[in-house]
Amino acid sequence: MPGPEDDLALLVRAAQVAGPIALSFWRAQPKAWDKPGDAGPVTEADLAVNDALQTLLTGERPDYGWLSEESEADAARLDARRCFIIDPIDGTRAFIAGQEGFAHSLAVAEGDRIIAAVVHLPAMDLTFTAHADGPALLNGAPIRPSDAGISGARVLTYKSATDPEYWKDGRTPPFRREFRPSLAWRLCLVAQGRFDAALSVRHVWEWDIAAGNLIAERAGAVATDRHGQPMRFNSPRAMVDGMVVAGPRLHGELRAGMA
């Protein structure tokens, strides 16, 4: 069985393949449509990247399971010792709008834990990486989260997460809400210390956060579901019940204030 560092090297190679494919469609008016069930938009670029990644990754690791936002669900992944968890383009709305903030999110799970992860933003030439036995890196340099407390913290989340119903005694903490389109990128921005926390009070898809979860943890952040429990991956529903990702002090303060 390959080591985590071997799987990471494969994911980096795959991201380097995915980037030029996505950029060939970016700002070129790619065909786009809405997925059924109000599941959001998809483009021909998402599918092209997905096909290339699946061919490369499963060709190299045919015994690994496959979970991707843009592939049909395959229950066989649940029986595999390791599983790829992939979002071909995270931040599709930003991609369609011609914005730079879209990412390829690539991870390998062993059991229910992530052991190798890459988040690659090709339009910005940013590559975040981590494996289970090594540091979190941005373009090869180590990264660390901030040590901010809750007052004035810059928290990446959506507007409804600040609604009083989600906070004890209806008191939203005194943080500053900000937003970036890609969930995977949000977790990496916290790992990098450019923002102080990433928060979701709603369920999140595994493919959006699997890679960023490991990168944040290996950087030194605490990454849990909204109840403070470790995130678990390659589950039957492929969803995690919210997320709280921040440096240790701020993570504890956010969790203490949540209803």
UniProtKB/TrEMBL annotation:
Recorded name of the encoding gene: suhB_2
Biological process per Gene Ontology, one example term: signal transduction
Record keywords, A-Z: Hydrolase, Magnesium, Metal-binding
GO molecular function: inositol monophosphate 1-phosphatase activity; metal ion binding
Listed cofactors: Mg(2+)
Stored PANTHER family: INOSITOL MONOPHOSPHATASE, INOSITOL-1-MONOPHOSPHATASE-RELATED
Enzyme class: hydrolase
Taxonomy, superkingdom: Bacteria
EC assignment: 3.1.3.25
Keyword Cell cycle: no
Protein name: Inositol-1-monophosphatase
Similarity remark: Belongs to the inositol monophosphatase superfamily.
Residues annotated for Mg(2+) 1 binding in this entry: E69, D87, I89, D208
